[in-house]
Amino acid sequence: MNTSQGFGFPRPSTDPATVARTEELPAEPVTLADDAELDLSVDEAAARVEQTLAALDAELVGLASVKRRVREIASLLQVDRARERFGLTSSRPTLHMSFTGGPGTGKTTVAMRMASILHALGYIRAPRVHVVTRDDLVGQFIGHTAPKTKEALARAAGGVLFIDEAYYLFRPENERDYGQEVIEILLTEMEDERGDLVVVFAGYPDRMARFFSANPGLSSRVPHHIEFKDYDHAELVQIADLMVAAENFRFDEEARGVFSEYLTRRMERPNFSNARSVRNAVERCRLRQARRLVGLNRPLRKEDLVTLTAEDVRGSSLFADDEGAAV
Ligand SMILES: Nc1ncnc2c1ncn2[C@@H]1O[C@H](COP(=O)(O)OP(=O)(O)OP(=O)(O)O)[C@@H](O)[C@H]1O
Ligand SMILES: [Mg+2]
Predict the structure, then answer these.
(1) Cβ atoms < 10 Å from Cβ of 216
(2) Residue to mutate, 105, 132, 278, ligand 1, most ligand atoms under 8 Å from C-beta
(3) pTM of the prediction?
(4) AAA+ ATPase domain location, by residue (predicted)?
(5) Which of 118, 119, 149, 306 is geometrically suited to a Cys-Cys bond with 123, CB 3.0 to 4.6 A?
């Protein structure tokens, strides 16, 4: 990275000789003078972060408070880098996090974006998220847990370790449970100031709160708690439109209305999983569209292949009761 492009250095002269010399500068920038000025807006890393944040805004519907928190963390790291340039030493910010929210509220998706931001700002070595659950960490027999957990940590090193449904690590009813061993190993790793691993504990809010209050040592190493709220109906419709467009499909006008009605019904059913349910429903619409198109027995136009019709949506079992009425 050519740090002379901004972030602290005076802009390089346009004189070719000076430019050549500037490019030979060592990668480590010199400490800035006390009266130097640092323009955060010309930092290359900041530009990459801005791009990721803009994509987060554009590609993910709603999530206002999540987006705000992600921005805050990015600012924290940007200022930390700026302080470093002036030789102001401080401890590395602790960035272990918890992501709490219902199913399909975007936790895993945001973790990936967060990894890109942390990487752009030099906090982790790779924009990578290693997703694990209890079974990836806890062994079946005595002596198996530590190597398993250490292997997961090794795979996540330099990136983000995302522990889904983290509360399954803790089983207070069974005091011999190996999950406790995992928590202890994680704690040691998380306390390592020089470590370049960010641990994200993810799960449903109520169980997560219990998990943290039962493990205060862990809780105190997790300063960032980010809450993912359930989406409302209007947001789910918008998510459906985004998903459909991303796959080069579109709802025709009637289909869009029927899909909105589908969502109203689906939200009241058991196991409703926010954006994940929307994705599954869109997949099933595609399946019905394919069946319908093959059954047409006529040459197809691009328009046919792109369009999801009301019929493709109404095929859902949630509309089954209406069939008699519709005829
Ligand atoms: N705000 C959003 N806008 C657009 N798409 C979204 C949004 N939130 C989630 N999605 C999409 O919904 C799907 C589920 O999201 P994700 O897997 O991130 O949720 P999750 O909270 O991790 O769910 P789970 O708890 O079930 O693991 C993904 O395909 C994701 O792209
Ligand atoms: Mg997930």
Answers:
(1) 9
(2) 105
(3) 0.85
(4) 93-232
(5) 118
- Domain at 31-228, CATH from 3.40.50.300, 3.40.30.10, 1.20.1050.10, 3.40.50.170: 3.40.50.300
Amino acid at 101: G
Ligand 1 environment, Cβ below 6 A: 60-63, 101, 103-109, 239, 242, 273, 275-276, 279
Return the SS3 of 299: coil
CB atoms within 10 A of CB 166: 30
109: CA distance to ligand 2 center in Å? 7
**Minimal-distance CA residue to ligand 1 atom 2:** 60
Given this model, what pLDDT does residue 178 score? 86
Pick the CATH number of 233-326 from 3.30.2000.10, 3.30.70.141, 1.10.8.60, 3.40.50.720: 1.10.8.60
